[in-house]
Amino acid sequence: MEGRGSAVNTPASRPVTRRSKSYGRSCVEAPSYFWQTPGHLTVLKIPTSREAAKSQLITNKVDPEHIALLVKNEWKLSYVTPLHHFRHTQLKSYSKHLAAFIVAEKQRGVAVEVGLEVGFKVTFTAVLGLAETDEDAETVFIQIQSKPVFAAAADAPKVVWRGWLTCVNGDPEYLRSLPPDFVSLPLFCTSGPESLTTLVKSWFERAFDCNFGSLALNSTTLNWLAALWTGCHPTCNIRYLKLAWSLPTQPPLDVSYTVNPQDAWELWNSIHPEENAVPDDKIDIKEVQSFINGLETHFFRHFKIYLSAGTLVKVSTALGSAHLDGKIKIGNSDYITTLLTLLTESALLRMPT
After folding, report:
1. Measured CA distances, 254 to 178, 225, 250, 307 (Å)
2. CA distance linking residue 47 with residue 37, whole number of Å
3. What is the chain's pLDDT, residue by residue, as a tens digit (353 residues)?
4. How far apart are CA 106 and CA 110, in angstroms?
5. Which of 33, 70, 127, 321 could be disulfide-bonded to 66 (CB atoms 3.0-4.6 Å)?
6. Do 115 and 227 contact (CB within 8 A), yes or no?
7. DSSP string covering 123-138, please?
8. Sequential DSSP letters for 80-140
9. What is the pTM of this model?
């Protein structure tokens, strides 16, 4: 996979300060003081309604090979603050700098959990087309490959780590408030050894004066996904609705609850009737809460267990899955925009204020 540069939705280029090393920030370069910029003054609000999930053939506007990299894998979520002087036109340069940084850190004695290898190849790629608004920056996919010491010369390097930064339907007021030398790609998804994730984050923090944090999801986000995905059943068979709760008993009780997709949709349709839907159909948080309450009530009738006393920790359908600890899987690319919009919102809300 070769890196591709793009100037789409990236602030205009500015003079670049010379760095003392090929992979880090100059020791004399002034910090950005991002949190003293106007972007810090914008208060993000938690939406109480959102558009219903809509199917779109995403491969009409995004390279199918790029989409294939995002689906089926499990991704660990983080948030990242805006990147200072990040340029989509410099992705090839970033590939070389990050590879050099990883090698240097390994030579310095930092453990890298990929076995014996002779080197690393890093590729940054612009995934064009996932951005939904003019304010969204284009997604960036990062792949790290290595080749074992004892591999044959003809053996291809092995992919050992993948990650991507994205912003889909980010809060427009917040994004417009950022200074022009910052790019916001608040959602960071990773798959691979934690040691490499740590090194990639460290390089980004040095190169772009940003900060990362873990992105755990909350029950409200999972409630939204359960309702949004169930509402897709008439147009895309979700096959099942699986939910998992953790109850605060001694010892703790984990409850798995699998609902027939048609039954789940009929409950949802009784709350948010499909025949009343309009082109810009909105779903209210009260409808989502009613849907979850209906599922919990049905469970209580059969098992006399109050699921509402516990915490919803996981939701999954054929369209995808999400866990409270910040792990997600994309099962169907046609509804990827709905999922990434919700996760972008979660990342922006989790950033320090």
Report:
1. 43, 20, 11, 10
2. 24
3. 544 444 455 544 333 333 333 333 333 334 444 444 444 445 678 889 999 998 889 999 999 999 999 998 999 999 999 999 999 999 999 999 999 999 888 888 765 655 545 578 999 999 999 999 999 999 999 999 987 766 666 778 899 999 999 999 999 999 999 999 999 999 999 999 999 999 999 999 999 999 999 999 999 999 999 999 999 999 999 999 999 999 999 998 999 999 999 999 999 999 999 876 666 789 999 999 999 999 999 999 999 999 999 999 999 999 999 999 999 999 999 999 999 999 999 999 999 87
4. 5
5. 127
6. no
7. EEEEETT---SSSSPP
8. EPPEET--GGGHHHHHHHHHHHHHHHHHTT---TT-SEEEEEEEEEEETT---SSSSPPEE
9. 0.86
Alpha helix stretches (DSSP H) within the chain: 64-70, 91-107, 172-177, 194-208, 219-230, 261-271, 285-303, 336-350
Question: What is the rounded CA–CA span in Å between residue 218 and residue 211?
Answer: 21
Cα 298–Cα 267–Cα 309 angle in degrees, nearest 5: 40
Query: What single string gives the DSSP state of each residue in 281-303?
Result: -EEEHHHHHHHHHHHHHHHHHHH
Report d(CA 103, CA 122) in Å as an integer. 11
Instruction: Give the up-direction half-sphere exposure of residue 110: CA atoms within 13 A in the CB hemisphere.
Output: 16
| Lookup: tokens for 351 | 């950033």
In this structure, are strands 212-214 and 74-80 parallel, antiparallel, or unpaired? antiparallel
Q: Are strands 187-191 and 74-80 parallel, antiparallel or unpaired?
A: antiparallel
